[in-house]
Amino acid sequence: MIGTAIDTNAVWHGHQASYFIEDKDDCIYNSLVKAIVEHRLLPGSKLPEEALAETFGVSRTGIRRVLQRLAAVQLVTQLPKRGAQVATPGQDEAANVFQTRKMLECANLPQVVTHCKEEHLLAMAELVAQEQQAHRDQDGAAAIRLSAAFHVQLQAIAGNQVLTEMVSLLTLRSSLVIAVYGSPWQQGCRCHDHGDLLGLLRDKDSVALADHMARHFDDIVANLRFDHSANETPDFARIFAESGSREPL
Q1: pTM, two decimal places
Q2: Cα 144 from Cα 179, distance rounded (Å)
Q3: pLDDT by 10s per residue, the chain, length 249
Q4: What is the DSSP secondary structure assignment for residue 138, as one 8-state letter?
Q5: What's 82's DSSP letter?
Q6: At what angle do helices 24-37 and 49-56 cross, to 10 degrees?
């Protein structure tokens, strides 16, 4: 998953980039996941089948399949007679998501250090540079995407695909937590933290790396604000204006 270059799109599902050139369902699924993770579709946003079908130029049956997939990874909630909406994690779930990430990611760091090669460091440095540029440009969507990509790609260095996929899914749920409870300025992780982590990885200091990563997650949770207000049905045509062809399923 890590090479001399990083495809940050891979973070959305945790698999190979080829995932993004599959069928129409996959294209819609990835568009919705990306919009949710980048906070263009906020927690509580309604996802009516008819409006989405019109936006993507597909049948309601196709949209229903995609919403079921999103519900399976806990990004969408489907309620009888109320339809689907972007999931809104509760406070306990929010804390548990980051606690689980802290345990998994910190525990895997010795393996990351053991397997880390120069090409990994170069690729991670490029990713950090892109994230820092996104912060300078005040590009919140890119900052969130690149922040998640940093964590997934860091764990991928160890070569444990099962754990990498678990972290990838947890980064999606983390984005929901930050969308609900994060401060207005909270766009992914603090930009300097990842540079610091990369420096410790370069030094092959697994103890300090794990300690810094643990504090990194503690800081994120400490900055969460547990208040939330519901959202109305979004303007899908505007959000997905860049979507591809509108072919029926």
Answers
A1: 0.77
A2: 10
A3: 333 333 444 443 433 333 334 568 889 999 999 899 888 899 999 999 999 999 999 999 999 999 999 999 999 999 888 899 999 999 999 999 999 999 999 999 999 999 999 999 999 999 999 999 988 888 888 888 889 999 999 999 999 999 999 999 999 999 888 888 876 555 556 657 899 999 999 999 999 999 999 999 999 888 888 765 545 667 777 777 755 444 433
A4: T
A5: T
A6: 110
Question: Angle between the 140-156 and 24-37 helix axes, to the nearest 10 degrees?
Answer: 110
Please, which residues bridge with residue 83 across strands? 79
Give the pair of three-digit tokens for residue 47.
């996802």
Report CA Rg, the chain.
18
Sequence-ordered list of residues with C-beta below 8 angstroms from that of 36, at least 6 positions apart, any chain: 70, 75, 86, 172, 175, 176
CA distance 89 to 221: 14
Burial category of 214 from C-beta neighbours within 10 Å (exposed 0-12, middle 13-18, buried 19 and up): middle
- The token pair at 64 is 């229903």
Q: What are the contacts of 141-144 at 24+ separation with CB within 8 A?
A: 141/38, 141/39, 141/40, 143/187, 143/188, 143/191, 144/37, 144/38, 144/39, 144/175, 144/178, 144/187, 144/188
